[in-house]
């Protein structure tokens, strides 16, 4: 190890992304040492290898690493054959306890000398926060195998990516809002009206959307077993953003980065839980308070002890308290009574029917006790590489074949269709100048800022049956798992 590398190693440990010119300036300021640019680059490479490990050498450690994981977390399935798969038993147990059999599936590309992908499956807990389920380091691309693994699972496509696919032909806020309006409808009659509006304005767009199964992108056709009506797969985007520091690390360092992040997240959630009073978790309490506020203006007509007609300023629904269903289906989709159901529950109490408080009708997914039980499942710590037991496998793992591409590798994220034009609307401070939306445009959520999981040609994309070959974004998948399919993991 060179003296320059030994000197700059503390700098790299504290600031991994420290520029080369800044290192040169520090050496000149502290030691009056003038060094060439290439010498500093070599020294930084040596120091980085010393800190994070050697890319090539770490490919000989996965078996020992897996044995150490199994020793500390018995029962965790771990496999390796041109890929490594990690799923901790405690995290799997916690996922089942959430009560939402929902997985968002996505991947991100590695940035080191040996290219590959980190595939992740991320759940969502009752507090509307991510719950990472399993990780897989793959060397030869993403293979769509969800139907083979979860034959009884329900699949949803990210609505943002469906919108990205249609931008090449139908661009603008009018078409965007028509799509979102149809996707957000929770009942079939309202969904049909939204589709008829699309058909009236743009018949070709209506035919294009009909090629996509309604069960994959519209709340009106979602089942209620996931207890979540989400239209986006941004839970995976959130997780990928948190592990961005592992993308350019050697394989073992990358896996350890991800394991430590999940461990820290569990600890941070438990600190938040200690401050909560219940009975519902913080996010559910906030949402349910808004629901009760809207329910206070509803008028209720009692038909039977179980059936009610609830009328509001712009809606009228039939509520069946016994089966926990009603015309707008929001209770079915989320497991949380909406304003119509809350109004009916209050009316039951006024008529001397023992209904309890509205919070008692909320699904167990949103209860503080359930949330705490989920995060009682922690990942056990492991020893360092020097204490790992060498694997007795007679074969030695070697790094995958790597072909260096011509030209300098691209590191900037590819912009989506129309994204460059959108960036021009932001001022120098990073904020978008406020402006009034056109009166003919329906407002939509502004926090939809996701990027694509990959690209494919129109003729190969199962969602597109068109003659053109324009590149389109492949919608990310959200998998809803039945009990039998999950137990087969």
Notable characteristics:
13% strand; 13 strands; disordered C terminus; seven-stranded antiparallel sheet; 489 residues; elongated; four-stranded antiparallel sheet; single chain; 18 helices; alpha+beta; 3 domains
How would you describe this structure to a colleague?
- With 489 residues, the protein is of the alpha+beta class.
- The chain has three domains: 3-52, no CATH class; 53-158 and 232-277 and 368-393 and 449-489, no CATH class; 282-366, no CATH class.
- It is built from 18 helices and 13 strands.
- It has helices at residues 3-14, 20-31, 37-52, 62-72, 89-98, 146-149, 159-166, 173-184, 188-201, 203-210, 234-242, 251-273, 282-295, 330-334, 339-350, 368-374, 419-423, 483-487, and strands spanning 78-80, 83-86, 102-109, 117-124, 130-138, 154-157, 299-302, 307-311, 316-320, 325-326, 455-457, 471-473, 477-480.
- A seven-stranded antiparallel sheet has the order 1-2-5-4-3-13-6. A four-stranded antiparallel sheet has the order 7-8-9-10.
- Helix 2 crosses helix 3 (37-52), helix 5 packs antiparallel against helix 16 (368-374) and helix 9 crosses helix 10 (203-210).
- The chain is elongated and about 85 Å long.
- The two termini are 46 Å apart.
- The model is unreliable at 139-143, 426-477 and 480-489 (pLDDT under 50).
């Amino acid at each position: 190890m060179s003296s320059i590398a030994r000197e700059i190693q503390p700098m790299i440990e504290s600031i991994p992304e420290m520029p080369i010119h800044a290192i040169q300036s520090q050496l000149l300021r502290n030691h009056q040492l003038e060094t060439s640019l290439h010498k500093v680059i070599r020294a930084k490479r040596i120091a980085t290898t010393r800190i994070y490990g050697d890319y090539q050498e770490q490919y000989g450690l996965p078996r020992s690493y897996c044995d150490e994981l199994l020793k500390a977390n018995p029962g965790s399935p771990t496999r390796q054959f041109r890929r490594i798969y990690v799923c901790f038993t405690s995290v799997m147990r916690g996922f089942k306890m959430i009560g939402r059999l929902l997985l968002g599936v996505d991947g991100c590309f590695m940035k080191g000398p040996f290219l590959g992908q980190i595939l992740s499956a991320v759940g969502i807990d009752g507090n509307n926060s991510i719950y990472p389920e399993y990780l897989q380091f793959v060397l030869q691309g993403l293979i769509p195998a969800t139907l083979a693994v979860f034959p009884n699972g329900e699949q949803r496509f990210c609505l943002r990516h469906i919108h990205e696919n249609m931008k090449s032909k139908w661009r603008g806020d009018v078409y965007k809002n028509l799509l979102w309006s149809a996707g957000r409808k929770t009942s079939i009659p309202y969904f049909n009206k939204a589709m008829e509006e699309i058909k009236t304005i743009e018949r070709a767009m209506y035919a294009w959307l009909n090629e996509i199964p309604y069960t994959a992108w519209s709340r009106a056709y979602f089942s209620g077993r996931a207890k979540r009506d989400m239209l986006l797969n941004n839970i995976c985007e959130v997780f990928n953003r948190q592990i961005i520091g592992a993308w350019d690390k050697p394989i073992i360092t990358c896996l350890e980065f991800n394991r430590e992040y999940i461990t820290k997240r569990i600890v941070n959630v438990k600190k938040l839980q200690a401050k909560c009073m219940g009975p519902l978790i913080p996010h559910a309490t906030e949402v349910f308070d808004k629901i009760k506020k809207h329910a206070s203006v509803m008028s209720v007509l009692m038909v039977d002890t179980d059936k009610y007609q609830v009328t509001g300023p712009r809606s009228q629904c039939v509520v069946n308290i016994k089966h926990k269903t009603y015309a707008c289906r929001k209770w079915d989709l989320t497991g949380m009574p909406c304003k119509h159901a809350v109004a009916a529950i209050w009316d039951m109490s006024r008529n001397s029917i023992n209904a309890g408080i509205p919070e008692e009708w909320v699904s167990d997914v949103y209860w503080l006790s359930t949330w705490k039980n989920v995060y009682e499942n922690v990942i056990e710590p492991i020893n360092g590489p020097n204490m790992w037991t060498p694997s007795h496998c007679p074969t030695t793992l070697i790094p995958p074949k790597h072909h260096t591409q011509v030209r300098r590798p691209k590191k900037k994220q590819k912009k989506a269709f129309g994204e460059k034009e959108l960036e021009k609307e932001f001022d120098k401070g990073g904020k978008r100048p406020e402006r009034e939306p056109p009166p003919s445009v329906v407002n939509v959520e502004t926090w939809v800022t996701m990027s694509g999981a990959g690209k494919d040609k129109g003729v190969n994309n199962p969602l597109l049956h068109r003659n053109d070959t324009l590149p389109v974004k492949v919608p990310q998948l959200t998998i809803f798992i039945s009990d039998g399919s999950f137990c087969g993991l």
